[in-house]
Design brief:
This protein is 23% helix and 33% strand. The chain is α+β, with helices and mostly antiparallel strands. It has a single domain, classed as Cyclic Phosphodiesterase, Chain: A. The chain has a five-stranded antiparallel sheet with strand order 2-6-5-4-7. A two-stranded antiparallel sheet has the order 1-3. Strand 4 and strand 5 form a beta hairpin. The chain is globular.
């Protein structure tokens, strides 16, 4: 489950990716057209469970839209041992409760809760080795204060991920309006 991004945000992310990509050639870089704000990753599920999941997700609600600002870059776990280059997300206070509600809704269906704290972000790259990493860390430093755009979400989406040699491709299976009273 994820919030989608606007085309303006995707476009704003293309330039920094193009600038940073040559510095870490062995990294797996995300394509902006596939980026989204993950609320819950459920992994592979049997097709027989899909209808129950779809029905459960239709019950998830919030009192207001989620406001997000895509801002800055950083590394997981940190700059000394970077494995993931990410773009930060500053969000309205209802984003984490929305993700938690999705977790609570899916748990009775046998979908395990995430053990890590919910940290909204966009993955820009997964770093396979240390080749070029220090140059990447230095170049990313200037992007820490940068704002890539803002959006308001009233719905979230169930995505299917298809792994291809060129990287993961995402297909929306269904969308869910989560704001109470929204049509």
């Amino acid at each position: 489950m994820a919030l989608d991004l606007t085309e303006e945000i995707r476009e704003a992310l293309r330039e920094p990716i193009a600038k940073l990509k040559p510095l870490a050639k062995t990294a797996r870089w995300a394509r902006p057209e596939g980026m989204h704000v993950t609320l819950k990753f459920i992994g592979h599920i049997d097709a027989s469970r899909l209808e129950a999941i779809r029905a459960a997700l239709g019950t998830v609600q919030s009192n207001a839209p989620v406001e997000v600002q895509i801002r800055g870059v950083g590394f997981f776990p940190d700059e000394r041992r970077p494995r993931v280059l990410w773009c930060g997300i500053e969000a309205s206070a209802n984003l984490a409760p929305l993700a938690a509600e999705i977790e609570r809704t899916l748990e009775p269906l046998g979908i395990r809760r995430e053990e890590r704290k919910f940290t909204p972000h966009l993955t820009l790259a997964r770093l396979k080795d240390s080749h070029g990493v220090q140059k990447l860390v230095r170049a990313a430093e200037e992007m820490k204060p940068r704002v890539f755009g803002s959006a308001r979400a009233r719905d979230f989406h169930l995505f299917e991920s298809v792994t291809k040699p060129s990287g993961a491709e995402y297909r929306k299976i269904e969308s869910y309006a989560f704001v109470k009273g929204a049509a």
